[in-house]
């Protein structure tokens, strides 16, 4: 059951037999149509829809009334009857008129890609903020469809508008309720954002570097997060398994402490309502010191998925200006190499060496994780100063502390004093001095 309150007829029935269709418009999409259908099926399965069949239709000219051509609508209707489908998932954005006309033609419930993703987000949101963000997105989506859905009443009553017929009254009442609820949610989210800002300010005073994991949904971010932190964040072979950012403290080689953040997965054609609504949720990415872009390098559409993630990061202003100035450091983790054969892995290893900003890993097997952690640590400590430190030769605790929180470059022991050259962050150096 989704978190937003609405008429029960709007709910997607879990376990309902369904078909998935997509309008393949030439020049509109950069990815393979079969991969798009497979992704849509994954989205549907993520909320328990029983997908019986899927099919793409080549649409040379979009029809304003139905999106598909009349002959294609007949084929879709035949598929509905053939499979006893109660639901038609259209893997495109539909106007309210198109959705209504398709439902009449197919005699089945129809939802579009935006509605499907909203359903998934409604189920997956685990925190109060996540639920508020989803409800705000759904209300925004609903508001855009409200006026059109009541136009038949406006035509029937009060043609000039000033007489205020029943249809117009209902429209205004619904508009007002949606506007009021959206305003209340925004106020609550503002408070959540301020609270998170205070938490972030406290972390910055520490200060510990923040490393944000981003990536296409199902790329393996949560599996990598669990591998690096020992946490138990939901990590499943399921789209949008994580919706709320999760943060944990981690230790890295030569680095005092760091904060690792797991974030919501990206997806192609992310509804604009959700890009705006989840901006606050993605704030941790905007304020991160390093972005680690986790990619499913074994996926046939991995390059298109990368482009989708980079597009959204660009929309959010995360990547800085056009030259990349002002943004956080960036690194790619090419995940799921355990699914590749030896020849492809060798090719990718050479490609990663050429690019210099990529590390091959398997979050499942653990392969490459140590190297990824070293690379992250090197990025985070690149600006750290080398300090010349003298400690008593019998002060084993001090030497151990320096090894744990910094990078000991050299050490020379005298009769009573040990001299060490240690690369340390300024906060770590200050803490070392304060403990002596």
TrEMBL record:
GTP binds at residues 215-222, 240-244, 262-265, 335-338. The gene is hflX. Monomer. Associates with the 50S ribosomal subunit. Pfam families: GTP-bdg_M (PF16360), GTP-bdg_N (PF13167), HflX_C (PF19275), MMR_HSR1 (PF01926). Its cofactor is Mg(2+). Residues 209-384 form the Hflx-type G domain. Mg(2+) binds at residues 222, 242. One of its GO terms (molecular function) is GTP binding. This is GTPase HflX. InterPro entries: G_HFLX_dom, GTP-bd, GTP-bd_M, GTPase_HflX, GTPase_HflX_N, GTPase_HflX_N_sf, HflX_C, P-loop_NTPase.
């Amino acid at each position: 059951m989704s978190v937003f309150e609405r008429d029960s007829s709007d709910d997607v029935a879990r376990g309902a037999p369904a078909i998935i269709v997509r309008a393949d418009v030439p020049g509109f999409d950069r990815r393979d149509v079969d991969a798009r259908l497979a992704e849509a099926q994954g989205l549907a399965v993520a909320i328990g829809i029983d997908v019986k069949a899927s099919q793409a239709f080549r649409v040379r000219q979009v029809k304003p009334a139905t999106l598909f051509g009349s002959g294609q609508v007949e084929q879709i209707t035949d598929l509905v009857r053939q499979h006893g489908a109660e639901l038609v998932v259209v893997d495109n954005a539909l106007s309210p008129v198109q959705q209504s006309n398709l439902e009449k033609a197919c005699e089945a419930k129809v939802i579009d890609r935006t509605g499907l993703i909203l359903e998934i987000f409604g189920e997956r949101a685990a925190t109060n903020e996540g639920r508020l963000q989803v409800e705000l997105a759904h209300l925004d989506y609903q508001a855009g469809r409200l006026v059109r859905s009541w136009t038949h009443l406006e035509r029937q009553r009060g043609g000039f508008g000033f007489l205020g017929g029943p249809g117009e009254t209902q429209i205004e009442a619904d508009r007002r309720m949606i506007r009021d609820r959206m305003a209340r949610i925004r106020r609550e989210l503002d408070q959540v954002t301020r609270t998170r800002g205070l938490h972030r300010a406290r972390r910055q005073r520490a200060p510990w570097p923040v490393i944000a994991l981003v990536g296409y949904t199902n790329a393996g971010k949560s599996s990598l997060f669990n591998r690096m932190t020992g946490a138990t964040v939901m990590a499943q072979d399921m789209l949008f398994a994580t919706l709320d950012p999760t943060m944990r403290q981690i230790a890295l080689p030569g680095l005092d402490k760091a904060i690792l953040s797991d974030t919501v997965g990206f997806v192609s054609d992310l509804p604009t309502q959700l890009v705006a609504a989840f901006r606050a949720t993605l704030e941790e990415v905007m304020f991160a010191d390093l972005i680690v872009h986790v990619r499913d390098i074994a996926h046939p559409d991995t390059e298109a998925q990368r482009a989708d993630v980079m597009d959204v990061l660009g929309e959010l202003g995360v990547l800085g200006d056009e030259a990349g100035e002002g943004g956080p450091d960036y690194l790619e983790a090419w995940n799921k190499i355990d699914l590749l054969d030896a020849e492809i892995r060798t090719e990718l290893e050479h490609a990663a060496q050429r690019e210099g900003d990529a590390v091959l890993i398997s979050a499942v097997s653990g392969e490459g994780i140590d190297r990824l952690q070293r690379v992250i640590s090197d990025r985070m400590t690149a600006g750290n100063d080398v300090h010349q430190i003298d400690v008593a030769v019998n002060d084993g605790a001090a030497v151990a502390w320096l090894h744990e929180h910094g990078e000991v470059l050299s050490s020379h022991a005298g009769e009573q004093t040990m001299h060490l050259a240690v690369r340390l962050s300024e906060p770590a150096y200050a803490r070392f001095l304060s403990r002596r």
